[in-house]
Amino acid sequence: MFNNIPPITRNIIIINVIVFIITSLLGDKIVEYLAAFYPFSPFFHSWQVITHMFMHGSIMHILFNMMTLFSFGPILEQSLGDRKYLILYFASGLGAFFLFNLWNFVEVQQISGELQQLGFNVNAYMSGASVEFAGNADAILKQKELLGSLKGIVATPMVGASGAIFGVVAAFATLYPDSKIGIMFIPVPIKVKYLLPIIVVVSVYLGLSGNGGGIAHLAHVGGALVGWLLALSWKKHLYRFN
């Protein structure tokens, strides 16, 4: 059955599984090297914008992503062709990285402004210099609280193929809107053109509200947005693809 999967989808799944096994064996060091950090973090490297798409945090994470890709990817690979399918996948992953970190940038600017108002030298801290807290006890407590939030953005990496796969799902929903899929806890199949907007709205809410539970929901939105835009531009030429 696995050999019947179109080659690009199959190879993406294989690479993800291999990278997951390697990172599980080698541990945190390789995760820090290949996961995607905030672009202005001292831990960021340019290649992370690609390599993070092949990293996963748990067995359930990679299983869910690869099963979703297995469900939607082959149809798109066959209808769009190799080149456009690859563009769709990686452009969606980059869109996920961009939107997620655009929101991170907004939050970092807000936190940095509050810290500077309290007399804390954010620029020196971000460059690795030793910085002392300033002010009275309440001000120091507030600085520590804000610094914890800043560290959470700067030092927490993003991993996973979810952004790229959300782009694939969004493209599928755009090109085949009346296709029905079964979802856990929903007794009847639902058309993807109804399901996708619900998922996107929920992801936007969770991403902006801070109730994401450690999931980069805005990355999902960024991937879906790119997938939707690409599929929309290609839709009228769908049957010309081979």
UniProtKB/TrEMBL annotation:
Identify the keywords attached in UniProt to this record, alphabetized.
Hydrolase, Membrane, Protease, Transmembrane, Transmembrane helix
According to the UniProt entry, the coiled-coil residues are none
Topologically, how does it sit relative to the membrane?
A: Multi-pass membrane protein
Peptidase S54 rhomboid domain segment(s): 46-232
Output one GO MF annotation: serine-type endopeptidase activity
Question: TM segments?
Answer: 12-31, 51-73, 85-106, 153-176, 188-208, 214-234
A Pfam family assignment:
Rhomboid
- Biological process per Gene Ontology, one example term: proteolysis
Gene Ontology cellular-component annotations: membrane
Q: Which PANTHER family match?
A: PRESENILIN-ASSOCIATED RHOMBOID-LIKE PROTEIN, MITOCHONDRIAL (PTHR43731:SF14), RHOMBOID PROTEASE (PTHR43731)
Any idea what this protein is called?
Rhomboid family intramembrane serine protease
Highest classification ranks of the organism: Bacteria, Pseudomonadati, Bacteroidota, Flavobacteriia, Flavobacteriales
